[in-house]
Amino acid sequence: MQNQPQNITKKTALFVATFAAFLTPFMGSALNVALPSIARDFNADAISINWIATAYILATAIFLLPFGRIGDIAGRKKIFTYGIFLFTFSSLLCGLSPNTGLLITFRVLQGISSAMIFGTGVAILTSVFPPGERGKALGINVASVYTGLSAGPTLGGLLTQYFTWRSIFFVMVPLGLITLWVTISKLKVEWADAKGEKFDFRGMILYGLGLSSIMYGFSEFPGWMGYVFILAGLLIIVAFGWCELHTEQPLFEIRLLSRSRVFAFSNLAALIHYSATFGIGFMLSLYLQYIKGLEPHEAGFILVAQPVIMAVFSPFCGRLSDKIQPGILASAGIAASSIGLFMLSFINENTSLITLLLILVLLGMGYALFSSPNTNAIMSSVERKYYGIASGSVGTMRMVGQMFSMGVALMLFSLFLGKVEIRPEYFIDFMRAMKVSFIIFTVLCIGGVFASLARGQLNNN
């Protein structure tokens, strides 16, 4: 490890990790608002629209664990820096895409770069900040994520309205270059706590194949190929778990799940929470523009309510989790999300925008109460040498959860709509798909409350 005054290291690490944590959620939430405009430009059907969002999430979910582990071995700062570069370059390519196929391909590259960023960013912060300060730092980091989510719908709607959807990608280029410059020039410390250990290529291949198969199966549902691919994916994931248990230096230290009840159930709660809540922005963006007839920037102003609440309260909840058991706060958060999702299952074409805003505020508070404390619980429940794996697990639970959330949307679109453009004659089918999705998400979230409560007490390291 190179020498650098600890105070400077803390400030620099917090800045680069926090700014990078802003970029990808900003772009993702901005793109949700732009999806109807992209569909019109490319004459894309409902399934293709979903894949523009899902390809990124799937790629991030597949590569988060591998890059978290590679960061432990080769250096977290190094992988983080390469990730910022690839994110900047792939954003430029997305903005130049001439058709749906290439846009989805470049979104995969963006997903890989995001895995490099998120697989190491939280680990860098956890390496720098001791347990007594960690919740505050993670709260700021999570607040940055939510600030990106907050700015995304509003600015994304305005950019789409006045400069076309391509400008969302182009604006990422200078922001990415700024982050890259600060990281290279100011962060002089490297962390590689597992240097010299082997990388589990077999685990990476099985893990990637399993997730890809499941998501492709969702897109083919309800045809028989859908069932085949989903079943095959689940079997491959089981094989991945068995191999990890019998590998000396695995991609994911599954034994951590048996060693720490807090680690196991905090990860499970995160997986369930993100599975139940991520599809909200995607569904409501389409609902507001297709059913309510709002312009992109108007839809953005409505959707911004949830992430604004998340951004405002996440630092406070993070600090609170340094003093109160994180599990208590996280359980209250996931319970609030359950109530919000249940209320969303009743919305229709006549629902007032004020009612929708109030529900989004409740969901935002649920997210804030859950995310920072739950991340603090995960990172504080493992030894220092496992910070990269734990950081990877934080991101992986989030991204796999988001992947399953979009998978549910993809499955319901396949079931109710099929490969058609979302036009007025199909609005009734879209509303049915949305209503069923919120019912499924509500049931999932209620299950997450029990998983969160089951984690037990955290003993700070």
How is this structure best described in words?
This protein starts with 5 loop residues before the first helix and ends in an 8-residue tail after the last helix. The protein folds into two domains: 6-185 and 251-453, Growth Hormone, Chain: A; 200-250. It has 18 helices and no strands. Helix 4 runs antiparallel to helix 17 and helix 11 (261-277) runs parallel beside helix 17 (387-416). With 461 residues, it is mainly alpha-helical. It is globular, with a radius of gyration of 21 Å.
Sum up the structure in keywords:
single chain, Growth Hormone, Chain: A, 18 helices, 461 residues, mainly alpha
The CATH topology label of the largest domain is Growth Hormone, Chain: A
| Beta-strand share of residues | under 5%
Tell me which CATH architecture of the largest domain applies here: Up-down Bundle
CATH class annotation of the largest domain: Mainly Alpha
Nearest-angstrom radius of gyration? 21 Å
| Overall spatial form | globular
From the helix content, strand content and strand pairing, which structural class follows?
mainly alpha
Helical stretch tally: 18
Mean pLDDT: 84
> Can you say what the CATH homologous superfamily of the largest domain is?
MFS general substrate transporter like domains
Q: How many distinct beta strands?
A: 0
Distance between the termini: 22 Å
Helix coverage percent: over 70%
The ordered string of helix (H) and strand (E) elements is: HHHHHHHHHHHHHHHHHH
Q: How many domain regions? A: 2
Q: Please summarize the sheet with the most strands.
A: none
Which ranges are low-confidence, i.e. pLDDT below 50, for 5 or more consecutive residues? none
